[in-house]
Amino acid sequence: MTKGTSCRGTRHNKTHILCKRCGKRSWHLQKQRCASCGYPDAKMRQYKKDIKTIEKKELKTKIEINK
């Protein structure tokens, strides 16, 4: 009896390819939507939590540079 590889071995098809707008490998072929930027929506996909984490990282690097 195999453990895990038999069901995992059939996973060889691509779900995501490169997005036209952001260039990341997050364009879902069946949904026809980018998981990263939200293309083909007119506005870029962005959440408040993403903005907060980016701001925290920027603040942390500014503090390290000033030391």
TrEMBL record:
Could you tell me which SUPFAM superfamilies the record lists for this protein?
Zn-binding ribosomal proteins
Q: Which GO terms describe its cellular component?
A: cytosolic large ribosomal subunit
One GO term under biological process is:
translation
Q: Which GO terms describe its molecular function?
A: rRNA binding; structural constituent of ribosome; zinc ion binding
- Keywords noted in UniProt: Metal-binding, Ribonucleoprotein, Ribosomal protein, RNA-binding, rRNA-binding, Zinc, Zinc-finger
Q: What name does the UniProt record give this protein?
A: 60S ribosomal protein L37 putative
The family this protein is said to belong to:
Belongs to the eukaryotic ribosomal protein eL37 family.
